[in-house]
Fold this protein.
Amino acid sequence: MNTESVESLPESMTLWQDAWRRLRRRRLAMVCLAVVGLYTLAAMYGECVYWWYRLHDETPPYKRVNLAEQYQPPSFLRSPFGGRETGRMSSLERFLHGLKALGHHPLGTDGLGRDVLQRVIQGTRIAYQVGIVTSLIAIPIGVVLGCLAGYFGGRVDDFIVWLYSTFACIPGLLFILAIAMVVGKGLLGVYLGIGLTMWVGLCRLIRGEVIKHKERPYVTAARALGLGHFRIIFRHILPNVFHVVIVTFTLRFPYAIGTEVIMSFLGIGVQGEPSWGIMISNARLRLWHGVWWEMAAATAAIFGIVLAFNLLGDALRDALDPRLRTGR
Amino acid sequence: MKTEDQRVAVRPLLEAHDLRVYFGGGKAPLKAVDGVSLAIARGETVGLVGESGCGKTTLGRALMRLEDSTGGRIVFDGVDMTGAAGRRLRTFRRRVQMIFQDPHGALNPRMSVGAALDEVLAVARGLPARERRRRTVELLEAVGLEGAYAGRYPHEFSGGQRQRIVIARALAVEPEVLIADEPVSALDVSVQVQILNLLRELRRRFNLAMLFIAHDLAVVRYMCERIMVMYYGRIVEEGPAEAVYSAPEHPYTRALLSAVPDLDASLEGRRRNRIILKGEVPTLGERITGCPFHPRCPWRRARCVEEEPALRERSAGRRVACHFAGELGDDAEPEREVK
């Protein structure tokens, strides 16, 4: 019997490693990943700030009202290196003073003199919380129901398809509003409302993929080996359709954030915390005073994260699904 | 049972009685397997030959209960497995294993070879972790691969290596019957021989009963003691391999064998003896009265169109489904009786 040598094979690489290698080759995807990383860092920083002030029982800077400093434009518009009080300083002193002024409310303040940058960072924290918690609700529901429907078919499939079709035919925002009415305003309503509507798309995709994989020879082989249904579903089929979950997650994350912004804007979302939606809602009233920076900061933050996640999601889809690869 | 071979005389390990697999209900179901009976004894290899689309694969799958049978019975080691479900079905499947035509598709691309074997050893055999690692290496070595391959993924292997892995996985559950569904038809010719030799060796070592499904007659002859020829969901001829090869009795078998290149015969003689079949294999959905082979049979007579021939015992272990078996001209020109 001939034994073939190990040397004849190239370096071992799992499919995940291969996908990562493909993703790394796309510059835009890597830029988006970096942007997402920055947002994540901002959210973590925001979380730290939040807990620090909460544990010290102090009013955090993003809530501290300081009417003396209201409506300050972003620091770079306040001519930090010029100004009257710098008249008799040396150039070095002037430079240092300018740097300090630049760091003072870099994105300006709102109508109550609260720092806009701090509020945007807190908004990032809220956005991440919403994105993660809703995914934690939606992904298990979507994955489990999708797998069961696709694998078992028949009555199970009929029931699950009926269930998600019912959910899908309720207008999303109305459903979210209804849930918010039941559980009350606040983050819990946001989580449940978005989480319970977001699983539908994922469930549908997973079901389709599982139906496709169910007939693959490797599943037949697993059945022939006498493996149980649940082992086949979750150990064999699920890893092969998991890229759908990842792509859906990256594409749904900004959707959840957007929905939270809308809910907060409408006043049924986050209460008492500076979410982006609340910032936009507040800034709207002051925009005609020429106070544009609060609105600009919040919308730019949303724009950045939604764009980054969407581009990243597309790139991930290409990297994880070789059949859809678009050249390069 | 005739006793020309001692092993066949003992109770068969896997039997099918009048097995039927129809797809799609209604008035004209697709009869993929239509009343097939067979018996495989321990240590015996039975070849199943036929053109593509004749129901060979479906029969193999149905024997493992991967396909629901419409009628008939499957008996394993004297126990009826036709209606087995749940744990009983899973245990049955582990005693009968299958090797697939496409070794690439049969392996989970997200599972390393070691993990795939490990899972089988854990679930089917319930071995402890250390024992499993040892067995994994043993199995890989048994099929001619190095134990160091365990950490690698299916896409890193060649077709022949993958088929070895599939075989190793099938052996992991220590089966008694192996259903090999065209195990080499997707492989290079040079690799085919290696895999066939491996199967022969393993069969001897583990005393496996084997159903060897193939369309390549030379391969079947190399592997099997007994062969069955399948056409249109039915067995049309069955017998000891040598007897069937040297003196085929069913016109279809004759046509199949005449298509095998024979290096000894002169070109002239071959051309003269070749039976060229007209037309296509009827699709399984088609309705054919009488003998299913009659539209293509060069020996066709009036009776063939009207009456379906039964599988008759012609001699010891030799069965043929043809009205005129033994009456056909010995070779060369068939007497054509075309309208």
